[in-house]
Amino acid sequence: MSTVTVTENLREGLAKLAERLTPRRVAFIAGQALLEQRKSHLIAYGQAHPGRMGPTTGFYSRAADATSMSVGNYSATITTNHIGLNQRIYGGLISPVKGKYLTIPVDEQARGRNASSMDLVPVIRVIGGKARVVALALPDTKQKPGKRMFVMKESVKQIGDPEVIPSEAQIMSAVNAAMEDKF
């Protein structure tokens, strides 16, 4: 036969633990873990997916810097306030805002630059009986199109990538590890 006796010391220890386990404190600890996880995940994702050409624009590092936490009485909310992040997660149609066409960089020299900031000449093709600008290029010595810098598109469809942010399993793992560490 085995007997367990609960003593006052054990009751006091459990009472102290219960004082520390307020919903707001639990939300804060979980939120801190998720904030750090989201930031490090965005940075790691950016390093693993550097883009099509040359050095990156630092999009994911800037997204990590734009990530914050707010804590309520029973919850923590992690927010990444960075334009374009939802587009990368969920995908969708990208259309021009100011002009008729998007300028898509096709050369490393054009990466991270605006087409209007470069001295470029139009590349014109006849499409459906109409002359249309299909690209922008550096001028050659005769002021004719040389090396193409940008192609012109009416819109593009970006494929979403849910791995841009941590998965549900990664989130639960981070919360569980933080709770085990603190309590």
Layout of SSEs?
Layout (H helix, E strand, L loop, with lengths): L7 H13 L2 H26 L10 H7 L1 E5 L4 E5 L4 H6 E4 L7 E4 L15 E7 L2 E10 L5 E9 L2 E4 L8 H15 L1
Antiparallel strand pairs: 1-2, 3-8, 4-7, 5-6, 6-7
Helix pairs in contact: 2-3, 2-5
Overall description:
37% of the residues lie in helices and 26% in strands. It is rod-shaped and about 90 Å long. The longest helix is centred in the first third of the chain and has 26 residues, at 23-48. The chain has helices at residues 8-20, 23-48, 59-65, 85-90, 168-182; strands at 67-71, 76-80, 91-94, 102-105, 121-127, 130-139, 145-153, 156-159. The strands form 3 sheets. Strands 4-7-6-5 form a 4-stranded antiparallel β-sheet, with no helix packed on it. The model has no long low-confidence stretch (mean pLDDT 86). With 183 residues, it is an alpha+beta fold. Helix 2 runs antiparallel to helix 3 and helix 2 (23-48) packs across helix 5. It has 5 helices and 8 strands.
Give the quaternary arrangement of the chains: single chain
Mean pLDDT figure: 86
* Rg from alpha-carbon coordinates: 27 Å
Cα distance spanning the termini: 32 Å
Specify the structural class.
alpha+beta
Total beta strands = 8
Could you tell me the strand content as a percent range?
25-35%
* Sheet of most strands: 4 strands, antiparallel
Please sum up the structure shown:
The protein is 37% helix and 26% strand. With 183 residues, it is an alpha+beta fold.
